[in-house]
């Protein structure tokens, strides 16, 4: 038996897998509905973050006249990626917690105990990569001017005209 956010599947002894989409959204548990909503939000935020971050890349011609705004767009895209990764991390961890609690529940029948599937591990890896990528984009933040006085170099010597010495 396999159970996910969008459908449940059963594998027969012959190797054939039969999947069934959940009948009604209203029949689902509240935690499953919230997990679905978080995953959809994470996907949509990831797409928005991708478009915003691409706008802020140095190789794009968009907004090339103002480099500070361009860098701020990249940082803003990084923040959106971090929020997207956190939403995906919360959703996958919440669903993993649900699976673990049901597995250790003594009232759950033995033949309906689920274990962690590959989708959970992929979700955790994707969330980690989105957070890491967003953090890298946030590191491209423009540096602020410091309050230190500017360093003074040595004055440049004017070219000699030959009349400076006696």
Structural class: mainly alpha
Strand order of the largest sheet: 1-2-3
Regions with little confidence, pLDDT below 50 for 5+ residues: none
Outline: rod-shaped
Bin the strand percentage.
5-15%
Number of strands: 3
- H/E element sequence: EEEHHH
The Rg value, from CA coordinates, equals: 28 Å
Tell me about the biggest sheet? 3 strands, antiparallel
Label the CATH architecture of one domain: Up-down Bundle
In short:
The chain is mainly alpha-helical. The chain has three helices and three strands.
Protein architecture, described:
- By secondary structure, the protein is mainly α.
- It has a domain at 26-140: Up-down Bundle (Butyryl-CoA Dehydrogenase, subunit A, domain 3).
- Helix content is 51%, strand content 7%.
- The protein has three helices and three strands.
- Strands 1-2-3 form a three-stranded antiparallel beta sheet, with no helix packed on it.
- A hairpin with a 3-residue loop joins strand 1 (2-3) and strand 2.
- It is rod-shaped and about 105 Å long.
- 17% of the residues are buried.
- The mean pLDDT is 84.
């Amino acid at each position: 038996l396999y159970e996910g956010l969008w459908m449940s599947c059963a594998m027969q002894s012959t190797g054939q897998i039969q999947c069934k989409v959940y009948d009604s959204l209203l029949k689902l548990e509240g935690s499953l509905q919230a997990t679905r909503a978080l995953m959809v939000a994470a996907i949509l935020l990831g797409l928005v973050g991708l478009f915003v971050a691409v706008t802020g890349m140095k190789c794009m011609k968009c907004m090339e006249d103002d480099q500070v705004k361009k860098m701020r767009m990249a940082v803003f895209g990084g923040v959106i990626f971090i929020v997207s990764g956190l939403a995906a991390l919360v959703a996958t961890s919440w669903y993993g917690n649900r699976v673990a609690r049901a597995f250790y529940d003594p009232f759950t029948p033995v033949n309906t105990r689920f274990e962690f599937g590959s989708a959970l591990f992929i979700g955790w890896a994707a969330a980690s990569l989105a957070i890491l990528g967003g953090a890298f984009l946030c590191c491209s933040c423009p540096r602020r001017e410091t309050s230190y006085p500017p360093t003074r170099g040595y004055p440049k010597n004017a070219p000699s005209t030959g009349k400076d010495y006696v």
